[in-house]
């Protein structure tokens, strides 16, 4: 399993950014996926999840209405469109294999290198 995140960078508060994750080594279209973020010294925080067919999505309350998760199974790629970003969105973002069970998202498996997002003026 290999997950390669990209697209991070420096963005001003209120701005937008789209990050991507290219997956390989497994059948991407058969797996639910999530974005998880982590600030140095803090526990990882689940941000958003998407079912394997893209038909259902879910968001943490902190990003709902601002972030949009999507996937292109033909390209084995997961996306996170981040709009109206805030300084508290600054973190390293990781894509993760996931499953949703009884309304709770669980991520598992190996970690990629992540992509750094910094929101600052």
Q: What number is the mean pLDDT?
A: 96
Largest sheet: 7 strands, mixed
Give me the count of strands. 11
Individual helix count: 0
The global form is globular
Q: What is the strand content?
A: over 45%
User: What integer value in Å does the Rg equal?
Assistant: 13 Å
Low-confidence stretches: none
Helix content: under 10%
What is the rounded distance between the termini?
37 Å
Question: Which sequence of SSEs, written as H and E, runs from N to C?
Answer: EEEEEEEEEEE
Describe the fold and architecture.
This protein has strands at residues 2-6, 9-11, 17-24, 32-38, 45-50, 57-59, 67-72, 77-82, 91-101, 104-108, 115-119. The mean pLDDT is 96. With 121 residues, it is an all-beta fold. The strands form two sheets. Strands 2, 4, 5, 6, 9, 10 and 11 form a seven-stranded mixed sheet that branches. A four-stranded antiparallel sheet has the order 1-3-8-7, with no helix packed on it.
């Amino acid at each position: 399993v290999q997950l390669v995140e990209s697209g991070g960078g420096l963005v001003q508060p209120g701005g937008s950014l789209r990050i991507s994750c290219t997956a390989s080594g497994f059948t991407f279209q058969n797996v639910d996926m999530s974005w998880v973020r982590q600030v140095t010294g803090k526990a990882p925080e689940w941000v958003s999840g998407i079912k394997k067919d893209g038909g259902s999505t879910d968001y943490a309350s902190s990003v709902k209405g601002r972030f949009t998760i999507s996937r292109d199974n033909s390209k084995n790629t997961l996306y996170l469109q981040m709009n109206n970003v805030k300084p508290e969105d600054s973190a390293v973002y990781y894509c993760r294999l996931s499953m949703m069970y009884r309304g709770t998202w669980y991520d598992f498996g190996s970690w990629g290198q992540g992509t750094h997002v910094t929101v600052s003026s």
